[in-house]
Amino acid sequence: MRVPLVPPPASAVGRVNACCEGPLSAFINLERISKSFGTFKVVDDLDLEIAKGEFLSLLGPSGSGKTTILMMLAGFVEPSSGAITLEGKRIDHLPAHRRNMGVVFQNYALFPHMTVAENVAFPLVMRGVSKTEAAERVARAIDMVQLTHIKDRKPAQLSGGQQQRVALTRALVFEPNVVLMDEPLGALDKQLREHMQLELRELHRRLGLTIVFVTHDQGEALTMSNRIAVFNAGQIEQLASPEAIYDHPETRFVAEFIGETNMFAGKVEARDGARTKIRLDAGPMVEAYLTTEFASGAAALVSVRPERVGLSETSNAANAMPVKVLDTVYQGDHMRVRLAGSGVEMVAKVDRKTRAWAVGAEAFATFNPDECTVIAP
Amino acid sequence: MMSSAMRARLRALGLIMPLMAFLLVFFVWPLATMMVASVTDGTVRGVLPQTATVLAKWDGEGPPTPEMAASLVTDLRMPVDSLAFGDAVRRLNSELSGFRSLMSRTASAAKGAGEGQALDLVAIDPRWGDAKYWLAMKRAMPLYTDRYLLAAVDLERDASGNVAGLDANTSANRQIMLRTFLIAASVTLLCAAIGLPYALIAAASKGWVRAILLIAVLLPLWTSLLVRTAAWFILLQNEGLINDALKTIGLISEPLPLIFNRTGVIIAMTHVLLPFMVLPIYSGLLTIPANLMPAAASLGASRIKAFRHVLLPLAFPGLMSGSLLVFMVALGYYITPALVGGANDQMISSVIAFFATGTANWGMAGALGLILLVVTTVLYLVYGRLSRSPTMVAT
Amino acid sequence: MSGQTSPILRIAQIVFGVAVVFFLLAPIVAILPLAFNSSVFLNYPIESFSSRWFGELQSNDMWRRSIVNSLIIGSGATIVATVLGTLAALGLRSSQLPFASAIRTTFLMPMVVPAVVLGVGMQMLYGRLGLANSYLGVVVAHAVLCIPFVLVSVSGSLNAMDPWLERAASSLGASPTRVFRRITMPIIMPGILTGAVFAFATSLDEVVLTLFVAGPNQRTLARQMFASIRENISPAVAAAAFLMIVGTLCIAGLVGFLRWRSQKALKPA
Ligand SMILES: Nc1ncnc2c1ncn2[C@@H]1O[C@H](COP(=O)(O)OP(=O)(O)OP(=O)(O)O)[C@@H](O)[C@H]1O
Ligand SMILES: [Mg+2]
After folding, report:
1. ipTM of the complex in this document
2. Which ligand is nearest to the CA of A61?
3. Which structural domain range is residue B4 located in?
């Protein structure tokens, strides 16, 4: 099943990865979009710019409005207010069939009465592409995803991964402006899912596609995207690159939703550029990296990822708290250590090679000011 | 600009509109026509229009006026359909006997005398001097009447306009309704008594046994009603298979009367309606996980208790909606009772059909039909509530 | 309920089950051989086998005309009911339609209103509209009764259809009309055909409305059987019944096949 991808078609050459070179250009723009169902506000005054060629993930808990946004982009749901533009032109009143967007649905929505080839040909037939050209393009597309041997089967006779690929091919074959995907890998088992993630990333890179990808799997979002928009209750909490989202979450929600974190409450004491000193409520002083403005004396939270916490016998680091080892758990590639001391509790993931820490051992928990983030509570 | 929700709504309305219009014309309108017929009475009015106008103004006190007599003569001189005239006379006669001779004598006198010539009605028949004949005529005149509805439940208005019971041998509608109710109830009970255990057995069995049990229910449902009724005709008649078989094994010497009586009706209707009982119960039981009974037993419930507390409650909704359905359909049943029932043991549908096709008494047909319609509709609405899927009827 | 069931209960179950199956099927089975009886009485025992009563159906003017009438009226009613019922089922699916469930309940009413009541009303109205004793009148009356079956069947297959398919089609560039023609229609086709078959069977079996609205020229097979059972019961009834049972089995087979095929096509892997 591991499928090496064939070279890109000629038409795609030259627009590889437009997003990653030069500044982002607004390709699709959502301006002040709101959507209510009855009195229930699902999307609240949302602004979002999507650049040409980027892989944007929408990540958020269930019910946060991700599907609704995708459906507004595709034209199945009408915004209650706001504007959607594509290359500067309003599209929010265009019916779905005139938007030229490829959509991959979670359950694939393959037409059960058509063969694989007929499914893939469908968008071309709808666009009045001539029979011979359509046949040629379908054959090329099916070949690209290595489905040629099953092109005459009906969807019911395909495996989940094959159906997934047919759905993807069908959404790509007509060279849409943008490809919208709603949890397209959600129904696949873990192994196939990881394989399809690689394939998708490869397709994106080679064809220079613009992809908006809905998922609630954070690992998937972190590995695949150029940018991630983290949603909560119909609003974007943070929109940034995967690294920025992970290393420097801007809100408590993002810090807690993505990965695991140690969170300490405190007050800002002194500032020095982006670095600041924070007095934790439990007592110790911490030096940290600032991403947003804080007044002196303001309440703040310090977030440190467990893998950024080191354990050391000496205290010669910017941040070093005396702690005691409560518990250690073997995790294969690392040790997970629970620590307590200085009035706080925290978790550290430490390299197994450095040293074996016994329960009850005394040590210093250290972390780099650049690797922790200060967040408004 | 129209919102997409608005467009979708208009499209949906456009799609249901043809059927809506069709059913309005060919379903609602006929039913409305029937309802209107049950409260209108144009028999006398239609034949004596002028008299109707004049009588409407008469307060009913005091002696008949010459104006009334003149208008009656004018009406009687008009050329008129003899059938309609006969209906009108019959209608008047039912108000007060004696009108038959009175009207025919007066009509021939009115037609015999020259055009425009005044007639002394009292001279033709002294009864015209009696106000009670004019009063009876006045009572028969109004376009809207409750007499059919009253008559449908064996009531009438007496001379003074009060509601009173009808003479016991004039009408037997209450008895017919009671009979209809009894037959429908017996059929429902029989269907429940056979259908519940049958559905339980079917749900508990597997493989080909279950398939046969289900096919046995579905096949009759698929078979033409007339075929089934004809089949019962063959089985039940005096020289039929059942009597022959009983005679052969020597149980009886004379054929049992199984047809043209209530026994035949109930047997045949139970056969026809049994699937409607079995299917809802069976589909309710299918939702029981197969391991529920053993589970109940292993929790210490005895078999009988498990049956009572686990299986019966699950079968109950199906039993209820099945019973309602069977009862509702049985109430309005026509074909089977008409073919295998006794002449003096007919159900309400047959009586309605008799009034409509036999005597063209639209008022009575309409009134009885209205009662049946109301009862059925109420049962249907209850049924819809109960089963939440009124589509069960068709599956 | 099986397994440790006591033997007495088990035997009682078997006896009861066999008895009810016998009760349900015996009458239908019993009438079949009589179609081939040469006797003039619709009765056992069978004197000798002959096909004279099938010949009677063909040669007797009454029977032959009634068969033709049934086919004409059945086809007409099926077409009317299928078109109207399918359109309405499509409209009723929309979430934008106000009072959808009340409307559906109303549309299903012809299934429960006693046929005699509807027949009386139709007879009165047809007299006024000049539809009495006309083919059109009978076709329309039958269509009223057939519509609920189409509605239920088409609604069923619409409900079973994946609602995302239509969105997928329009995202791929299909206009609403083309979505309907190329996606919705082919997928619900088995449901439409099943509904049509139900409608035809309903019309074929209809007697009561026919009694009220049809003239002698529109006498259908079912109406003719009714008259024959009532007036001069002849084995031609058994022959007609035989034809109807065989027809029913064919229809049931057809519906079963359609269901099976649509399930096979729509079942996800
Ligand atoms: N047609 C609708 N009518 C009413 N409420 C709706 C409708 N569609 C969505 N909602 C509500 O809007 C909210 C957001 O739904 P949405 O499907 O966008 O969430 P989501 O982020 O995609 O969630 P998930 O991860 O579970 O797919 C939910 O609370 C949902 O119940
Ligand atoms: Mg979603």
Report:
1. 0.90
2. 1
3. 1-28
